[in-house]
Amino acid sequence: MKTIHWGILGTGRIAEKFAIGLQHVTNAQLYAVGSRTKEQAIQFASRYNIPRAYGSYAELAADPNVDVIYIASPHVFHAEHTLLCLEAGKAVLCEKPFAMNARQVSDMIKKAKEKDLFLMEALWTRFLPTVRHTEQLIASGVIGDIIQIQSDFGFKAEYDPQWRLFNKQLGGGSLLDIGIYPVFIALLLLGMPDEIVSSAVIGKTGIDESIGAIFKYNNGKIASLTSTFMANTPTETIISGTEGRIRFHRMWHMPTFLTLTKNDGTSEDIRFNYAANGYEYEAQEVTNCLLQGLKESPLLPLSFSEKLISLLDTIRGQWNLEYD
Ligand SMILES: NC(=O)c1ccc[n+]([C@@H]2O[C@H](COP(=O)([O-])OP(=O)(O)OC[C@H]3O[C@@H](n4cnc5c(N)ncnc54)[C@H](OP(=O)(O)O)[C@@H]3O)[C@@H](O)[C@H]2O)c1
Question: The pTM is what?
Answer without folding.
Answer: 0.98
